[in-house]
Amino acid sequence: MDAAALLADGQYSFDDLVEMFDDDYIEHDAGAEALMLVEATLATRGLRELPVTEGLTAESISAVVDDTRAAWLVEHAPRVLGPGSEEFELWSESDSFNGWAERAIRSVAELRNILTAVEGQGSLL
């Protein structure tokens, strides 16, 4: 079952993702999940379309990714975008690498900006 389906079913474990990031090398599944969660979190803020997965809602995403976990994603997602990441290695072999990297970097920055604004309002941590 992929991460979006697990989110939709209320079965997703963010702690499992954190554990996968404990290694120096980020496997494909962990990297893809982290970037999907960045996009999904932006969707809960109305800035993206929700990933197309039956039963996935903004509520099911928000139940897993609160502001603290979103901040964790902002801190750790950049590891997916460089050497030491299988996701990076796979995309770097593709003609679509630049587009993938630019979108991912922009999304992480956008989520960082949102969280910074929330933190400025005293709502984060």
UniProtKB/TrEMBL annotation:
InterPro entries tied to this protein: DUF4259
Protein name: DUF4259 domain-containing protein
